[in-house]
Amino acid sequence: MCGIVAYIGHKSAKPILLEGLKRLEYRGYDSAGLAVMNANIHVARTVGRVRVLEEMLKQHEGFDGTLGIAHTRWATHGEPSERNAHPHRDDESNGHGIVLIHNGIIENYTVLRKYLQDRGHTFQSDTDTEVLAHLIGELYDGDLEAAVQAALREVTGAYAIAVICENEPDVLVVARKGSPLMVGVGKDEYIVASDSSAIVAHTTQAFHLEDYTVARLTRDAFRTTTIDNVPISPQIKELEFDLGQIDLGDYEHYMLKEIFEQPQALRLCLKGRINPRDGQVVLGGITEFARDLVKAKRIIFVGQGTAFHAAMVSEYLMEDLAKIPTEVEFSSEFRYRNPIIQDGTVLIAISQSGETADTIAALQEGKQRGALTLGLVNVVGSTISRETDAGVYLRVGPEIGVASTKAFLGQLMVATMLATFIGRRRFLAADYVSSLLDELETIPDCVEKVTQLSDQIHDVTAKYADRENWLFLGRGYNYPVALEGALKLKEISYIHAEGMPAAELKHGAIALVDAETPVVALALQDELYDKMRANIQEVQVRGGPVLAIATEGDADIAASVDDVLWVPSCPEELAPVITAVPLQLFAYHTAVYHGCDVDQPRNLAKSVTVE
Ligand code: AGP
């Protein structure tokens, strides 16, 4: 996905646009560009980060206008290059001077491109976005808003766009379908952006554009309609976003900051939601549907990436605590497989951003087939949080690092509370729930204790830094954590890592085990401990080095593996919240050791808003 920001008002647009792009850079960062209206439209684009664009603009005149649009890209169509960077113009021959930025995918762009080429258009890039700019130019007849509406009626796919036109130098037109876009309402100015992080420095009054909505903005007014020009009234709300939450502070990277924030983030996640003494969980966002949840016949969790791993843990939690048949699916698989949804089915979407395209689509698929839908989401007001029937916010604060850390732990905590909330209304005894909530309340402190392993993990990292392949093994609740640990390592250090159920090792992957292939084994003193010890021996007799994540005080395992990282003892249902932390730090220190860009790893983006 990409980050887009636009400004119309009485201040110089350029600094506002550049600052906004920096706030949105975690959304995509392979190229950047901006366009400013100043008699005519001046465009600057470059490969690389926003700072490269900023340096480039110091050498250019003409970018002093008070209307502009800007974009930071995660490439979908067309390799990262200056010619494929946004903004894109319509055909010069049209002479309308239309310039556009876009986040999303125009799925029928090849058909539209052929149609336009047959009408004499020539294209400068490989992008779907340029085709949309040309289509608007082709349909332009003196009214930019009307041309944008007409063009979007021809388009299939997802878009969040901002468009300006030299023939209408005081108008900004924006529109949205499937990719997020918000409009910040200031005093005689508007700032439009992909999310509130680029808006809140200018105003706390904003509204989300709904799907198929077009907004026409001038300095003193705005109008919102559907793409069929039917007027609609957006709901302007107070933004709940504190910029202080996304300051890097003294940390070198957002990922490290967010790992160390986890104890406090989890305390906020729990605050006001659990009462161990009474054995009660209070989740305001689902109270209205408590009976539907208690009587649910089947629960389906959907998610991608780290959220999918959280969904896997949630499956175990829901069946153990609520005793409701539960399954978990990749959003991208669920949405296309013609799923069977019977009465009493609850679909729960897990997502940090609330904007993952496949998870939105899976949610919509479940909803239209009659499922009750819930969202476990971090970003307030995100698409998933608005499309679900109910939900629970993670409340762990903004997560900027592309590698998800505190959001993962927040997802696990909320899933535990949700399963306990339902289970307490089904078969769980009050005293069992009270003791579980007592333990849950200690988890932030346990996580804080594990973060203190950071220096030790740094040293272990150096010992294995030259290894090019890793296996991560776990059983039961820690099987999803093995997958998550492997994902963390590969996505920020570019080292191949594979997670799997420990027992699966013997069914093929054990062929990979040798002295050059270390194995991370999650071997806590739980009911599967002896099985894990046997798996560790299977690795060791084949020369594989073993790094164990083990329960504090387990001297026996310490004597038998190459390295061990200790975690506090806790009920197995809560173990993933703790065992994930050393793996986050291991991935972090490995990536730093190799000089990788921890917060903005190559080829990745914070939220995948395209399919
Ligand atoms: C995890 O570190 C990655 N950033 C990625 O797998 C992420 O979890 C996935 O894209 C889902 O994002 P979401 O939680 O915002 O839906």
Helical percentage: 25-40%
C-alpha geometry: globular
List of distinct ligands in this structure = 2-deoxy-2-amino glucitol-6-phosphate
| Top-tier CATH class of the largest domain | Alpha Beta
Question: Structural class per helix/strand content?
Answer: alpha/beta
At CATH level 3, the topology of the largest domain is Glutamine Phosphoribosylpyrophosphate, subunit 1, domain 1
* CATH structural architecture of the largest domain: 4-Layer Sandwich
Strand content: 15-25%
Q: Number of helical segments?
A: 18
Strand order in the sheet with the most strands = 3-2-4-1-10-9-11-14
Overview of this protein structure:
This protein has an 8-stranded antiparallel β-sheet, with helices on one face. The protein has a 6-stranded antiparallel β-sheet with strand order 5-6-7-8-12-13. The protein has a 5-stranded parallel β-sheet with strand order 18-17-19-20-21, sandwiched between helices. The longest helix has 22 residues, at 430-451. The chain has 18 helices and 26 strands. It is globular. 35% of the residues lie in helices and 24% in strands. Helix 3 crosses helix 4. By secondary structure, the chain is of the alpha/beta class. A hairpin with a 2-residue loop joins strand 7 and strand 8. The structure holds 2-deoxy-2-amino glucitol-6-phosphate. The site of 2-deoxy-2-amino glucitol-6-phosphate has 15 residues, from helix 8.
Features of the shown structure:
611 residues, alpha/beta, Glutamine Phosphoribosylpyrophosphate, subunit 1, domain 1, Rossmann fold, 3 domains, six-stranded antiparallel β-sheet, 18 helices, 35% helix, globular, binds 2-deoxy-2-amino glucitol-6-phosphate
